Every structure is written in C-alpha cells, then in structure tokens.
C-alpha cells in the first residue's frame, strides 16, 4: 500500500511544494504516493490569483520576472527541473497556438491581452491565473511514475491523528487519511483586533461606515457612496486595488495628457483622503532590466557574515549588528549597476571603487567621502533613509498645500523607476532579495533578541515591502492623475484616526495646522495582520485550540511579553509544525506568510537563486523523508 500526502492550499505555494515533491520523489519517497490538493478556490491560482476577479487588476511583476520553476541558479538539494517563466509560456502559446484556439482556451479578452504582452508588460491577474493553471497541469503531467495528484475543491476543516496517520476532515464530508500534511493556505483571514473592534463599535454608535482590513477584492465597496469622502488608512498594494476598483472600476477612465494622464470621471466615484505611517505609496516597481547583469551576490551579507552571528548564540540585535551589513549589501547592488552599467556617470573604475568600498564600514565618514568623490550627481547615490522615510521633514500648513509637495515626490520616484538612466534602483532591488533570504535564516536561528524580533524585523518587513513590492508605474501615473483632479488627497506621514462629533477624524504629522479631515467612511486598506488566535480558518483555529499549533510570543529576558506576532511556529529548516509544548511534529508542516519563516513571494524572478524555490525544496524533501518506507529513512 502506498503513502499519501495532503497539501492544504492549492495556490502557488501548494503547487510549488507539489512540483518539488515530484522532483525529489524518485530519490527519497517510497513507491506509490498520492498527493491530495485541498482548496475551496481554483487549484493553481488559488484565492489571490483566481480568474474570478476584476479584469482591471494587474500584477506588480513584469512578465519576464515571474516563474514557478527552478533553474541553474537555484542552490538546493533536490533536482533542478527547469520550466517556462510566464514570459516563456506566453511566447510559446503565441508561437504554437492559432488565434481561434487561443480564444477558445483563454477567452477573447485574455487572448487579446496575450497577443500584446511583452517581457516588460505587467499582466493582468487573470492572465497570471491562466499561467498558474497551466503550471499545475504541467506539474501533474510531469509527476514521476507512481506519484498521483488529486484535487479536492473544498475546505479542510479538521485535522486529527489515528496512530501515525493524519486524518484530514473536509467541508464536503470527505475524509483523507494521509501520512503527512502541509499547510500552505497563504494569508489567513482574521477577526478584528481589539483596537479594530473598539473602532468599529464607536463607528457603529455614530452611524459611520468602517471597512476593517481584508482582501480588497473581497470587500463590499458598494457602501462607499459616490460623491462622498472616505478616509483610507494604508498606501500599499491593497490601496492601489481599492483605487482601481473605485475609479476605473466604476466607469472612470484615463486619457493621455502630455507626459501624464488626465482622469475623466464617471460621476460614480468617491473622494479619498489617504495616509499611512510613511505617507507615500510604495515605490514603483522598476520598468527596466539590468545593464550590468546580476550583481555578484551575496557579498557582505551572505553566509560568511550571517553564520558567525548565528553561531554566536545571541542575543543578536538586527539594527546594530546586521543592518550595517544589510545596508552595505543593498548599496553594493546599486553601485555595481551604476559603475558597470553607467560608467560615464562615475569618476572611478568599478574595480577601484569596489575594492575601496569593500574595506570601509557602511556608516563611516570615509565611506560617505568615497561615494561623494566617485559619484558626482547626488541622484546617483543611494539614500536608504529617503527610501524608508520619503516625506521626512515635509510640512504644510494645510491639506491643500501638502498635495503638490507629495505629488512632486511621487512623480520623481516614478521617473526614476521607469527611466533606464536609473537602473541602479533595480540593482538595489535584486540585492534586497538576497538580503531578505539571509534575514530569514538569521531570524529562524533563534539568536535575535526578543526586542529585535518584535521591533527590528517588523521595520525590515515594512521597508522591504515599500521598496520592493510596489505597484507598476502605470498605476502610479493614474494615482497622480486622480490627485491632480482632486479625487485622491494624500494626508501625509504619521496618520492618526479617531471618532469624534459623529464623524471619523484624521490628521498627520505632515500637516502642521488646520482642522482635521472628517468623513463618515473609513477603509483600513491592508490585509489583516497574521494571527492564528483570531483566524477564521476552521482548521488552524481547531489546531490552535488543541495545542497542536502555537503562536510565536516574544518575551524579554524577564518574561514580559513584548509582542505576539500571531505567526504559527515552525522549524526554520523545513517548516515542521511546533506545538504548544515546543515539540516538533514529524509529519505536519506549514509554509507561507502565516508561519514564522518569511519567504519573499510564492513565485519569483528567474535566474535569482530564489529563496521561495529553495525553501519549497527543503520542505518537500522533509515531507518525503517523513513518509513510511521513505528511501532516506531506510538509508
């Protein structure tokens, strides 16, 4: 009798685990493995990338920057099994399929989009859905002999044990008896926090409308009335989705207007006043390629630097012991691209600059002097503080006076991310991806102080998101057009919100005077924070109640709780679940943003030794080794 595995969550993460199971199955697994993919949403795309969403919503990655497959750069123990990136897939479809068959398989809208897509296009999420659906079919077709995949379009609601067997109870009444389980559910919905509940109660008492954090595509936006003013807290990707759905989604349109766009209203749109701690939308995604090729990474924040920190036993402070090396690594990516890709804009050859740069401390006056002497134009020098705090020092007497100041900074940031003269931004972006993986290793080792995990890691994640996970440039152009037309106003950094005198009130540290902005609607434009204890997922909730999963609670040396991260504890090396007693379960695993191992995205750029592919491989191989009769166990 063969073995069986259940993967709860059949979006890109779950499919990535399946692909790696297939790759290492012949080496590690027993003969005959049934893999059950469980998800109420379409297998392959999953919830986030499902076809059933607005055709206006786009990815924040270019077509050439998306793949689900390993390549020769990926350093992992499992076999490398190359496969087409999104762009390769799109080109192959166009080359092999006639227009009629493409319309039949994709539908007329996606067939038209496919015909026009280029390597630098930001495709719609619906076209990405088609790619991910194809990837799943390709992975299933390529599974080794004896490994079979079964898709269950339902929800997993319970998990128990019968001896060594894992018993997965499904919402449709079926029961799966398997040997190992992988929880790959992605972002978990959650009930509101205490603060959010209190705000909702005060809003309800005043007859106000409050939309708490949730997936924007699942929100009931009909409660935001045309012509009214809504406050928005959050300027990340959920905010961009909100803007798309409330303006173009309600019939508005954008027309060319010189170098920018002009918004033509439909009459059904509201007015938004939006702010956040940083006060600016995420930095635009770069719209160009590297001129100098991939920077030589890691250089300053790789295993040679991180392993001694891990070996020290801690406590390690990320901000003082790791950040100087992290910052130097990010700057290394920037300056490699500048010196090698744009040699006419620097005063030293790369080899000389690199040698001197390598010897200097990132924070030293000598480093600042080297950069100033070698890079004459300040715009060509990386400014990490400005990237993190784009509105620092910006003050205005009122909201109206603030708008041109914010728009000026957004427009300049956009210019640098779409103009190929500024490809060093992409060099820094690539370096940040490398740094992210090493930070994950460091965080998973247990040597970071509780304070550093509670404060510094949260800052780093926010900084990474703001710099590396922004919207496409065309969305920023649309946002600027809406601001110029008076439909979107920026509240500035340090946004605050309260309820008083029968209305929501909001202000920020950017506006020095004037009355607060008032509105009868507030939208928290972000995903719920991770929280196993507040999750609405019945499976995770039941496991937590039974003590079979545990949340990460950070305490100082005296035992005082600094923060409950809400993340499910897993063994960093392979995602094995850790229960309330601290015991690692031998046959239960979890991977994704709801766990203590942070991986930058479920899919990734080709040719970058991607962290997500390496981690999928490690988890899949651990799952295979856990099976009865596994070859590794016998060895």
From TrEMBL:
Q: Which Pfam families match?
A: NAD_binding_9
Q: Which InterPro entries match?
A: FAD/NAD-bd_sf, HpyO/CreE_NAD-binding, L-asp_N-monooxygenase_NS-form
What residue stretches are annotated with the FAD-dependent urate hydroxylase HpyO/Asp monooxygenase CreE-like FAD/NAD(P)-binding domain? 6-187
- The organism of origin for this protein: Pseudonocardia adelaidensis
- Its protein name is FAD/NAD(P)-binding protein
């Amino acid at each position: 009798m063969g073995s069986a595995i259940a993967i709860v969550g059949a979006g890109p993460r779950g499919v990535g685990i399946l692909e790696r199971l297939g790759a290492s199955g012949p080496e590690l697994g027993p003969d005959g493995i049934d893999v059950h993919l469980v998800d109420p949403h379409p297998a392959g795309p999953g919830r986030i990338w499902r076809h059933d969403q607005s055709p206006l919503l786009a990815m924040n990655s270019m077509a050439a920057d998306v793949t689900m497959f390993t390549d020769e750069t990926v350093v992992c123990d499992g076999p490398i099994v190359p496969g087409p990136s999104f762009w390769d897939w799109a080109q192959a479809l166009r080359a092999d399929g006639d227009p009629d068959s493409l319309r039949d398989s994709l539908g007329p809208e996606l067939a038209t989009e496919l015909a026009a897509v280029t390597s630098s296009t930001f495709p719609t999420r619906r076209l990405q859905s088609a790619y991910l659906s194809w990837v799943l079919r390709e992975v299933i077709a390529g599974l080794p002999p004896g490994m079979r995949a079964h898709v269950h379009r339902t929800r997993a609601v319970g998990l128990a044990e019968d001896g060594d067997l894992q018993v997965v109870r499904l919402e449709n009444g079926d029961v799966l008896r398997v040997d190992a389980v992988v929880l790959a559910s992605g972002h978990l919905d959650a009930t509101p926090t205490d603060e959010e509940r209190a705000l909702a109660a005060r809003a309800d008492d005043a007859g106000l409308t409050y939309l708490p954090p949730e997936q924007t595509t699942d929100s009931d936006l009909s409660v935001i009335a045309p012509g009214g003013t809504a406050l928005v807290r959050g300027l990340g990707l959920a905010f961009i989705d909100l803007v798309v759905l409330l303006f173009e989604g309600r019939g508005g349109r954008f027309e060319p207007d010189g170098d920018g766009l002009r918004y033509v209203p439909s009459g059904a749109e509201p007015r938004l006043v939006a702010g956040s701690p940083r006060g600016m939308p995420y930095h635009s995604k770069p719209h160009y390629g590297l001129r100098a090729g991939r920077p030589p990474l890691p250089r300053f924040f790789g295993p040679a630097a991180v392993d001694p920190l891990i070996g020290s036993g801690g406590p390690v402070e990320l901000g003082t012991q790791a950040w100087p090396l992290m910052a130097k690594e990010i700057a290394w990516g920037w300056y490699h691209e500048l010196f090698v890709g744009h040699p006419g804009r620097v005063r030293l050859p790369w080899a000389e600059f690199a040698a001197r740069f390598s010897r200097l401390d990132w924070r030293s006056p000598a480093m600042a002097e080297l950069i100033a002497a070698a890079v004459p134009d300040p715009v060509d020098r990386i400014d990490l503080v400005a990237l993190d705090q784009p509105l620092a020092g910006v003050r205005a007497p009122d909201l109206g006076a603030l708008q041109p100041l914010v728009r000026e900074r957004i427009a300049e940031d956009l210019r640098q991310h779409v103009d190929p003269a500024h490809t060093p931004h992409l060099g820094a972006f690539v370096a940040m991806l490398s740094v992210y993986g090493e930070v994950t290793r460091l965080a998973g080792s247990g040597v970071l102080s509780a304070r550093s995990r509670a404060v510094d890691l949260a800052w780093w994640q926010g900084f990474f998101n703001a710099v590396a996970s922004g919207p496409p440039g065309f969305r920023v152009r649309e946002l600027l057009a809406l601001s110029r037309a008076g439909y979107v106003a920026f509240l500035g950094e340090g946004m605050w919100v309260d309820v008083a005198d029968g209305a929501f009130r909001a202000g920020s540290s950017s506006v020095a005077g004037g009355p607060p902005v008032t509105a009868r609607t507030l939208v928290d434009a972000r995903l719920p924070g991770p929280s196993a204890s507040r999750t609405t997922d019945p499976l995770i909730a039941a496991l937590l109640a039974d003590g079979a999963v545990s949340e990460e609670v950070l305490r100082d040396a005296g035992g005082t709780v600094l923060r409950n991260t809400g993340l499910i504890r897993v063994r960093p090396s392979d995602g094995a679940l850790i229960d309330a007693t601290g015991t690692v379960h031998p046959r239960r695993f979890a991977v994704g943003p709801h766990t203590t191992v942070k991986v930058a995205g479920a899919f990734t750029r080709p040719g970058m030794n991607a962290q997500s592919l390496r981690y999928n491989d490690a988890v899949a191989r651990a799952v295979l080794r856990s099976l009865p009769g596994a070859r590794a166990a016998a060895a």
